[in-house]
Specification:
With 106 residues, the protein is α+β, with helices and mostly antiparallel strands. The chain is 17% helix and 22% strand. The protein is built from three helices and five strands, in the order E-E-H-E-H-H-E-E. The longest helix has 7 residues.
């Protein structure tokens, strides 16, 4: 299993196990991360799975594709490291991946 760390807006860290091949969004939902609501179920149509990849990790994972970039224009509180977790597919090299969750999603 790959460990993914979600950091709430108040700094609380929650580690979840993720099977390689699933999305980070699915790992969040399976792990009880309530602020990743993912209303569209991962269809890239709502941006309710928005998170910030930490600076240490942003260069270690593939960047967003054009469709994701368009959806990121709709998020509240965007940053240069904003991603939609439904578009990040877990692999073994992501063990320890850290994502900060926007305060606007609580």
């Amino acid at each position: 299993m790959t460990k993914i760390v979600f950091i709430s807006a108040d700094g609380e860290r929650t580690e979840v196990d993720a099977r390689p091949g699933i999305s980070v969004m699915q790992a969040a939902r399976d792990g009880g991360i309530d602020s990743v609501t993912a209303e569209c179920g991962g269809c890239l149509s709502c941006a309710t799975c928005h998170a910030y990849v930490t600076d240490a990790w942003v260069v270690k994972i593939p960047g967003p594709k054009p469709d994701e970039v368009v959806m990121l224009e709709c998020v509240a509180e965007p940053r240069a490291t904003s991603r939609l977790t439904c578009q990040i597919i877990v692999n073994e090299a992501m063990d320890g991946l850290e994502l900060e969750l926007p305060e606007s999603q609580y």
